[in-house]
Every structure is written in C-alpha cells, then in structure tokens.
Write a structure and sequence with these properties.
It is built from one helix and 66 strands. It is an all-beta fold. The strands form 16 sheets. Strands 12, 13, 15, 16 and 17 form a five-stranded antiparallel β-sheet that branches. Strands 21, 22, 24, 25 and 26 form a five-stranded antiparallel β-sheet that branches. The two termini are about 15 Å apart. About 45% of the residues are buried.
C-alpha cells in the first residue's frame, strides 16, 4: 500500500517536557537550543503543544505558544509538533509544515547558539461521526469504519475506528481531504454482513465523497449493512495435505466489493460476506517468498480463464465446497540495467500469459536498488516477462524478454512447478519523451490528469500526472504528435484540452519528437468543466436488446467509463469527462471485456466486437496490452464539457456480411462474401481468428433490373453460385444469413453485374458497395458541441477485472491484518 497522504496524521509519539531527576528544572547546558512559537491559522498562540526533537528531548508551549528546547549538541535535528491537550484539536506536523519525519526540514544547531525557528501554524483536525446498523435496524458492534483517500491506482488508508455497542463511531484527527468511508467486518468470515461504502455504495469508485475542511465536524455518516453470502472451502497440496496461510479473494466479475479470507492450520477458510452475484475466487500465497503457485477456482491460471462462481441468498449464509489444490510455485529471477550497464532500480517486472483477450498478468514485482528482481508464486505455464516504468512513462521504453517490443513477439519461458529460472535479464533502451506539468487556472498542480500523445495514424504513448502535476510520456517512434489532457480523477472537475490550449485535435499544436530525445514544457492549464454522458441503443437484427454488451469510452492509463445495455436495449455511459474517446461495443458477460458477443436469441451465434462506426476490435493487434483504435480505423468521439451525446446506436447482424466479388458465368453468378461480424463459437475458447459461424446458412438472391428471370441459392459458406439466370442481363445481388428461424444478418446490395454469354475471362472485382441505411443506426447528436470531428486515439486495455473495483495495489489483494 502506498504511503499515507500528507493529510493523514503521523504518529503521536510526543514526549513529555524534559525534566531533571527529582522533577526540578534542567540545569544549564552549554549546548545549542531552538525556540519558536506555535499558533493557530489566525496567528493566536497555542498552549499545551508538545514540541519534540526526533529521538531527543522535548517541551510544551506556554500560554502564548512559545517554547524553547535547550541542551542540544552540535548537529541537525528534526522537530515534531503535537497537540498534547486532554482534548486533541489540532493535527500533528513536522517542521516546517511537513507530514512526516522523512520530509521534515532539518534544523542545524551549533553549541552555544540559539536557533529561532519560524512560527508553526497548526491546522484544526476534522472529525467524522456516524452509526452503523444491521439488516433489522439494530446497532452493530465491532464494525470497522475506514477513512480512505484516492490515489492513481485505488486508495490509501488514512485512519479507522470500530463501532461501539450502540453502533456509533468517531474518526478524529483527520486533515483536510476528500475521504471515502468504508464499513466492513473487521475479521474475515466472522459475521454475514456485506462491506459497504458511503453512501450505500458497493465500491470505492461509486462512493459518495466526504469533503473535510480544517476543523470540520461531520455527523450523520451512517451505514445500514445487509446480509450476504460468505465463501468457504479447503486448500490442500497435491497429496491432500492442508496448507495454512493462503489468501482467498472473492472478486466481483463486474463492480462491487470483494471478500477476503485466509486458511487456518487445517487448510479451511471462510471469507467476508459478499452480495449475491458472480465472482472469481483467487488463491494466493502471500508470503515474501511464495511456496505455492497462485490459481483461481477450478485450477485456472488467470481471471480471464477463471470459472465464475455464482452466489445467491437461496443457498444460505455460507457457500461451501470451493476448494483448491495448489502446486509448488515457480520462480523467475534476473537483473535489469540501464543502457550504460548500471542497475535500473524501481522498474516494474510483470509475468503474463496469453488468453483469448490478450496478455493477462499473473505476477508482478519491482527491481531492487541493485536492479535485481524475483517473481515468485508463478504457476507452471508459458510466461512472457515485461520490463517497464511503473507509472506508464519514464526514461526507458517498455520491453519484453528477449528485447522484444510486443507481447506477440516476446520469447516465452516455459516454467515447471517448483522450478527457478535465473538470468532473465533486460537492458533498457532510452525512450523519446514528452514531459510537462498540468495546473489549474490558479497555477496549482493537478494530479490524476491523463496525458496522451498520438499521431494521425497511430497511438504513441500515455502517462498520468502525479501529485505535483508532472507527467512523462515515453515514445518508441519519432513523429509529429498531438497531446491531449483529460481529467481521469474519480471526481471530474476540469475540461479537457489539446496542446497548446486548443479545444480540438485539428487546432492543436504538434510536438515533433526524435527518438531518444526529450521534449519539455508541454504544459497545460485546465479550466473547470462538467462531465457529460454518451447514450444509445444496441439490438440485434430482430430488435432484441443485446444485454451482454458493454459500450465503453476508453481513456488512457487503463481508465475507462462504461455502460451496460439494459433490458430495453438502451445504455448510458455516465460521468464522462470532456475529451476524445475510442468508443467500443464489446461483450461483458462475467465482467471482463471480450471481443466476442453472444446473440440473445441464438446461443450458438456470436458477433465480433466493434469500434464505433464499424471496424472490428482486434485484441491481438496490440499496442502492448490493447488495440490501437487509430490503426484499426475507429471513428472517435469528441465530447465538450457537459455534453450529453445521444444516438450512438448499434445493430448487431444488420450489416455483418460483405460481398467481396462476383464471378459471372453463362447463366449464373458466383458470389463470394465475408462475414467479419460473425465469429465461430470455438473462437470464444481458443482465441482463433474470426471465421464464418458454422451454425448459419446463407442465401444469395440476384435480381435483374430489366425484369427477366431472378434466382437464388443457399449454402453454408462462401462462395455460392446462383444458376438459371438470363444471359446479357444486368443483376444486383445480396446475401442474407439465417439461423433457421429468422434472418440474423445481411449484406448491402451489390453494384450491377452484366451476365455474359461467352467464355468468362475471370473474376470481376466489384467497385466498393454503396452504403445503405442500417436498422438501429440513427443520427448521433450532442447537446453542446454538436460536432464530432476530432481525431485522436485512446488506448484500450482489455484484461483483468476491467470493471471490477480497484483495491489497494492489485484488485485481487485485500489488506491483511490492517489495524483499525
């Protein structure tokens, strides 16, 4: 878990005022001293504030807030200020205005001298109060209430309390912050209450923020917990012996809270209660040197291959029998160096396996100061290892072992159970970079802003601003880039823009990048701007709602906003910050985005996922982890602040067939066609290339324009020959697909083809088929901007738990033994 934010209270390790033996004053000391005044925000002196030298003497402020600490030797000292009054009202801090000793300013003192320090102004602490009740409305004792703050990957714990017998709690000593409050059982599996976020929300991202100003005293932050279902089982080794200390995470396949448990000495576990729904259950050895390989329920290696577990209240408070048999863990070791051969510290090293949805990470770590790393807890499988800056930017390019640029070309490591593979090393290559700072209109740094660089033909790179507003985009290729800035924080506050303060990509200034060089000062100053929404309808050819579809507006840095199709065929992507997006229609049954979509009427019929306006989403055409929408020809969607864009509709099966060419004969036409909108059912499991769905039959109908004989023919694959036609007559043809009950797809009408009466010279290649209206495709509109002309690219990251709540670190890792 990341370090607690600056607003969090550092430890109250105040020491009593220095006294001589017997209680008398300290005798004069020839050493140096420090002195100063502690006051409130208005400058009024504060009495009873403990002032302590780190690992040294201390004192308390007098009635005017003044203090002096004598008897210091020559050296540098760090000073802490804490409220030692019976009622604590002020937050602790270190000199000067720092949150912890590591960042505190050191004070240099010489013997025989007094160092007057600048006045210290303490900040009033905030408080949060509330009551937690159970399903019947009665108070709940011993519920953990956590105050958390957001970070770029989830959240950080600030402070927590447990409820008293009457269900009440008070979290004090809180600094100014935007907090998210979680209510949960303190001990896994102890009672069947479902964890909840304020205000009655299932996960962190949907929770209602509690915004505290200095000294705020917030009451009424209450929760009513519902009963749920716990998961239980036993974990053993290959010989059936129990394994203790295995972490068990029950993670929702869509959004919501996860459950956690740990095996005891008998290998048994019971997790926290979770709401009825569908979950992936992960078993992992959380020790620093894992002995056992991680896996998912039913022996699966990754979330994309996991067997979903469906929980319902009808089965009782505990769903048992979810067992696992773990194998010895494999290990991969190596060293990462910089171009000159020196160690590369703090580099992320990930091990991934191939799945139908692209690479899926199974383990990750970071390099030590020596550049070395150890990836443990690995299952026996073919692994591909990547090396990259952990924040997505950095000085060096991401690479895969063995010096490969993509997952597809990387060398696989076949590791056996219990095996250790050493020497999996990497030497990083310098990247080109675009770096800059993002601030608001007042010049204050903004964290969590997505910055992306793209050209008109490919996606380049992305990064996210840190708490100082800084970002660094790493680029592998030279080119002229346009840089876009989008507010990717949970609370959308700022309007997006293109560099240099431009509203669209068309007017944006380009940034010329040369390989290995750094372009600086590509800064942005953002103005306030409200989020909006994108909505539409998704149906099949029969008008049936495609409820297995999620429509996703992709943002950089693995950030996406999505809406699932409802029973009436409509969807809404809410809370969309202004910017330019790649809009995709993908399957999301089970939570993870998939390029394969099931038809709601015919279970054996599947469609390929598509970008807006038709191009297929090719998951394996990766920009290392996701497709490149610009390279794949996606038409991108631009939203101005507060836009509520409508009419982004899709009809699956309505235009799933394309006539590629027609070969004329004496009295026949042979029609060849492709069906990129359909995929074979086998491809769902194998990740195979898109093929014709074997469950369908195709009918080709050719009609003359001069009133002579028409004809048709049926087959199960392309091409199909239609006979009995009239020579020298002009024909147009179309192809329709049927599942035996209804038409599930058709082509546009072909151009006219003149049927010959003599020898056929060869295939006649048609001109492009003219566009025809497609059922379900309606004009798209915007309530504000009205135009959708921006061209940019957003990275698509399809993989583990895309719609799942992101917890601290990886979503599958629940805190263990965290003190309340």
């Amino acid at each position: 878990m990341a370090a607690v934010a600056a607003v969090a209270l550092v430890g109250l390790n105040a020491q009593p005022a220095l006294a001589a033996p017997g209680g008398g004053p300290v005798p004069p000391n020839p050493g140096g001293s420090i002195s100063g005044v502690v006051s409130d925000a208005g400058g009024g002196g504060l009495s009873g504030i403990c002032v302590n030298i780190d690992n040294g003497p201390g004192t308390q402020t007098d009635g005017s807030g003044a203090y002096s600490i004598a008897g210091l030797g020559t050296g540098s000292f760090k000073v802490q200020y804490s409220d030692c009054n019976p009622t604590v009202r002020y937050l602790s801090q270190w000199y000067a205005g720092r949150s912890d000793s590591d960042s505190a300013d050191a004070v240099a003192v010489a013997a025989g001298t007094n160092i007057p320090l600048a006045d210290v102004h303490l900040v009033l602490a905030g408080l949060v109060h509330g009551t937690v009740t159970g399903p019947g409305g009665g108070p709940l004792l011993g519920i953990c209430v956590d105050a958390d703050v957001a970070n770029n990957n989830g959240w950080d714990f600030v402070k927590g309390r447990t409820t008293a017998g009457d269900g009440t709690y008070t979290i004090d000593q809180l600094g100014p912050a935007t907090l998210r409050i979680e209510f949960r059982e303190c001990n896994s599996g102890s009672r069947p209450y479902i964890a909840q976020w304020y205000d009655n929300k299932a996960d962190f991202n949907d929770s209602t923020p509690v915004v505290l100003a200095p000294g705020d005293d917030r009451h009424g932050i209450d929760a009513g917990l519902a009963s749920g279902v716990a998961v239980a089982g036993r974990v053993t080794d290959g010989a059936g012996h129990p394994i203790a200390g295995i972490n068990v995470n029950v993670n929702p396949t869509s959004r919501g809270s996860s459950g956690y448990g740990q095996t005891d000495g008998n290998g048994d576990y019971t997790t926290d209660a979770v709401a009825p729904g569908t979950y992936n259950v992960e078993f992992s050895d959380g020790s620093s040197a894992p002995v056992w390989a991680s896996q998912y329920w039913n022996g699966k290696l990754s979330p994309n291959r996991a067997t979903p577990l469906t929980l319902s209240g009808a089965g009782g408070a505990v769903h048992g029998g979810i067992n696992a048999r773990l194998a010895p863990a494999a290990t991969i070791r190596g060293t990462v160096t910089v171009p000159g051969g020196g160690p590369a510290a703090g580099i992320c090293v990930d091990a991934s396996i191939a799945t139908p949805n692209g690479p899926d990470q199974v383990a990750g770590t970071t390099t030590a100061s020596s550049g070395s790393y150890t990836l443990g807890g690995l299952p026996a499988a073919a692994m591909k290892v990547s090396f990259h800056a952990c924040n997505g930017g950095g000085t060096y390019l991401k690479q895969w072992w063995h010096r490969q640029a993509t997952f597809a070309t990387a060398t696989a490591l076949n590791v056996a159970a219990g095996q250790t593979r050493s020497g999996i090393d990497a030497q990083l290559v310098a990247a080109a970079q675009i770096i800059g700072t993002v601030t608001d209109s007042g010049g204050h740094a903004i964290g969590g802003i997505c910055a992306q660089a793209s050209t008109t033909t490919f996606f380049g790179g992305l990064a996210r601003t840190d708490s100082n507003g800084h970002y660094a985009i790493s680029l592998a290729r030279s080119g002229d880039y346009r840089v876009q800035f989008v507010d990717c924080n949970d609370t959308r506050t700022f309007a997006g823009q293109w560099w240099n303060r431009q509203p669209t990509s068309a007017s944006a200034s380009t940034v010329t990048v040369v390989a290995g060089h750094v372009v600086t000062h590509i800064d942005a100053r953002l103005e306030p701007g409200a989020p909006g929404s994108i909505s539409g309808t998704v149906v099949n050819l029969s008008g049936r709602a495609m409820t297995s579809v999620c429509v996703i507006a992709y943002l950089p840095d693995q950030f996406a906003v999505a809406g699932q199709v409802r029973a009436d065929g409509t969807y809404t992507i809410a809370n969309v910050p202004s910017g330019t997006y790649a809009l995709a229609f993908l399957g999301c049954t089970g939570g993870d985005a998939s390029p394969v979509i099931a038809d709601p009427q015919l279970t054996t019929l599947h469609y390929a996922g598509v970008w807006w306006d038709g191009p297929l989403v090719h998951i394996d055409n990766t920009n290392d982890g996701g497709p490149d929408p610009i390279a794949q020809g996606a038409t991108l969607v631009s939203a101005a602040p507060g836009d509520h864009l409508t009419g982004y509709n899709r009809c699956f099966g309505c235009s799933a067939i394309t006539i590629s060419h027609i070969t004329p004969g004496r009295a026949s036409l042979t029609v060849a066609f492709t069906t990129p909108g359909f995929v074979n059912q086998d491809s769902v499991q194998t990740g195979a290339s898109t093929t014709t769905a074997s469950t369908l039959t195709y009918t080709v109908a050719c009609t003359p324009s001069d009133g002579t004989a028409s004809g048709s023919a049926t087959g199960t694959s392309s091409p199909i020959t239609v006979t009995g036609l009239t020579s020298r007559a002009p024909y147009t043809c179309e192809v329709a697909a049927s599942d035996g009950r209804t038409t599930v797809g058709h082509s546009a009408l072909s151009n006219r083809v003149l049927l010959t009466s003599g020898p056929v010279p060869g295939a006649q290649i048609l001109d492009p088929v003219p566009a025809v209206p497609v059922p379900g495709e309606l004009p798209r509109t915007g309530t504000s901007s009205g135009t959708l002309t921006d061209v940019a690219v957003m990275i698509l990251m399809v993989g583990t738990g895309l719609f799942a709540s992101t917890r601290r670190g990886r979503q599958t890792t629940r805190r263990c033994g965290k003190a309340a």
